[in-house]
Design brief:
By secondary structure, the protein is α/β, with parallel strands linked by helices. Helices cover 50% and strands 23% of the residues. The strands form 4 sheets. The protein has a 5-stranded parallel beta sheet with strand order 2-1-3-6-7, sandwiched between helices. A 5-stranded antiparallel beta sheet has the order 9-8-12-11-10, sandwiched between helices. α11 packs antiparallel against α12 and α12 packs across α13. The chain is rod-shaped and about 140 Å long. The relative contact order is 0.06. This is Diguanylate cyclase.
C-alpha cells in the first residue's frame, strides 16, 4: 500500500509540476498535491496541512527564497525542498543557508524521492524534539509553581556549585530578585562563614561520610539572624553523572528559642531567675567528683516570709524573695552557683574557696544586704545564714548538712530573741 504524501508544489510550469508528481508516485507515494505560483497563493495554501513543499528556485515575479521567507515568517516547520533546472553551487548553498532542507536539480529527479524521505524523517525528529522540549518545559514550569508554593526555601546548583534555580521563598530569604542568583556561586549568595560550612557539608556528603543535613545561622534580607538546617541531595543526569545538588533551608529559630527556654526553665527558678534546686543538685554532684576543692557551701533562709505573705500579701512575699536572690547573686562571684532550693531557702556553692575566702564572702554578703535594705527601705530583708567548707568530695555532703544546721541554728536563735523581746514588753 502506497504511503500518502501531501505535496505543495510552488512552480509556475504545470508540466514541471507534473514531472515531480510522476517521480514521487514512481517512488511509492500516493501523491495528493496542489500547485501555486505566487506569494498570495502560497500563503493561502499554507493554511492546509502538508507533508512537504517542493519549490522552484526561480519563477516570474516570485522565487524560492521568497517562498522560504514566507514559510519562516508564518512559523511553519514543513520540509522544504528547492528545485531548479539550472543553477550554480553558490545559489544552492544560499538556499540551504536560508533554511531549505535540500536542493535538487530538475535534470536529476532521481534524487527527489530520497531527498523527500530524508527531509520528512528529519522534520519528524524535529517535531518530536520540540514536543519533548515542550513537555519538559511544562514539567519544569509545574515543578517551579509547585516549589514556589512551598514556604521552605529551596535551591538547586550545578556540579560546580553555581545556582541553577530556586523558589520564591529562597529569594525572599536571601533578599534577591528573581533571576539574580543564576550562575552565581554559594559564596556570592551566602555569608562566607556559612558558605564555607555548606561547602564542607557537601564535601563530606559526597565522600559518603556524614549526614546530608547540618545546622548554621544565616543573615536574612531583613538583617535578622536565623538558625537554619540545610538539607541537600545530589541528583543524577540521564548518563548517571552528577547533575548537581538540590537543597532546602528549614528555619529552626523558633525551635531553638523554645529549646533554650526549656533548658533555661529546667535549670532556673521562674520567680527569682537564679538557678533552681535541680541544677544545684547537679552542680553539687559534679563538684564532688571534681578538682575545685576546697568548696564552701552557704545556706540562706529568708526570715519573716510567712509574716510578709500574711500581712502584706503574696506579691510582697514574692518581691522579698526576688530581693534576696538579687542580694545573693551580687554578693558572690560569677563562677559561684547561687540557687533557690526551697520556698524561702537559698544556697550557694563556692568552688576553690577555703575558710578564709569564705569569711570574706560572708562579709560581702552582709555588706550587700545592708546596702540593699538601704535602697529598699519599704521591704526590709533579713537573712539567716549558715556556711561550711569541704576539702574533698567525701566531706561535701557533710558540709552541706553542717551549713544547713548552722543556718537553722541562727534562725532559731533569732526567733527566740524576738519572742523574748515580745515577752519582755508584755511583762514591762
Amino acid at each position: 500500500m502506497k504511503r500518502l504524501l501531501r505535496v505543495l508544489i510552488v512552480e509556475d510550469a504545470p508540466d514541471d509540476a507534473q514531472l515531480i508528481v510522476i517521480q514521487l508516485e514512481q517512488g511509492g507515494f500516493d501523491v495528493h498535491c496542489q500547485r501555486v505560483d505566487s506569494a498570495q497563493a502560497l500563503t493561502e495554501a499554507l493554511s492546509s496541512p502538508w507533508d512537504v513543499i517542493i519549490c522552484d528556485y526561480v519563477m516570474p515575479g516570485f522565487s524560492g527564497l521568497k517562498a522560504l521567507q514566507i514559510l519562516k515568517e508564518l512559523g511553519c516547520d514543513i520540509p522544504f525542498l528547492m528545485i531548479s533546472g539550472k543553477v550554480g553551487e553558490e545559489a544552492a548553498a544560499a538556499a540551504i543557508r536560508a533554511g531549505a532542507d535540500d536542493f535538487v536539480l530538475k535534470g536529476n529527479l532521481a534524487r527527489l524521492v530520497p531527498a523527500v524521505q530524508r527531509s520528512i524523517a528529519e522534520a519528524t525528529l524535529r517535531q518530536q524534539s520540540r514536543r519533548h522540549e515542550q513537555e519538559l518545559k511544562e514539567k519544569l514550569e509545574f515543578i517551579q509553581v509547585l516549589i514556589d508554593t512551598l514556604p521552605t526555601p529551596i535551591f538547586y546548583n550545578d556540579p560546580n556549585g553555581l545556582y541553577l534555580g530556586c523558589n520564591k521563598a529562597f529569594e525572599e530569604q536571601i533578599g534577591m530578585k528573581p533571576g539574580e542568583h543564576a550562575n552565581k556561586s554559594i559564596y556570592e549568595i551566602l555569608p562566607p562563614d556559612l558558605a564555607a560550612l555548606y561547602t564542607r557539608g557537601e564535601e563530606t556528603a559526597e565522600n559518603g561520610v556524614g549526614p546530608r543535613s547540618f545546622e548554621g545561622t544565616i543573615t536574612c534580607a531583613d538583617g535578622e539572624r536565623r538558625d537554619m538546617i540545610f538539607y541537600s541531595a545530589t541528583f543524577k543526569n540521564s548518563g548517571n553523572s552528577t547533575g548537581g545538588v538540590v537543597g532546602a533551608l528549614l528555619d529552626i529559630s523558633e525551635r531553638k528559642q523554645a529549646e533554650l527556654k526549656l533548658r533555661y526553665l529546667s535549670s532556673h527558678d521562674i520567680l527569682t531567675g537564679i538557678y533552681n534546686r535541680a541544677y544545684f543538685d547537679e552542680e553539687l554532684e559534679r563538684l564532688s567528683k571534681g578538682r575545685k576543692f576546697p568548696v564552701s557551701i552557704v545556706m540562706v533562709d529568708v526570715d519573716r516570709l510567712k509574716d510578709v505573705n500574711d500581712q502584706q500579701g503574696h506579691a510582697a512575699g514574692d518581691e522579698l524573695l526576688r530581693h534576696a536572690a538579687e542580694v545573693l547573686k551580687n554578693a558572690f562571684r560569677r563562677e559561684d552557683v547561687v540557687a533557690r532550693v526551697g520556698g524561702d531557702e537559698f544556697a550557694a556553692l563556692l568552688p576553690n574557696t577555703d575558710e578564709s575566702a569564705l569569711r570574706e564572702a560572708m562579709e560581702r554578703l552582709q555588706a550587700h544586704l545592708a546596702q540593699s535594705n538601704h535602697e529598699h527601705a519599704g521591704l526590709t530583708l533579713s537573712l539567716s545564714i549558715g556556711a561550711a567548707t569541704a576539702h574533698d568530695g567525701d566531706e561535701l555532703m557533710a558540709s552541706w548538712r553542717l551549713a544547713d544546721q548552722r543556718m537553722y541554728r541562727q534562725k532559731k536563735g533569732r526567733k527566740n530573741s524576738n519572742a523574748g523581746s515580745r515577752q519582755h514588753q508584755l511583762v514591762a
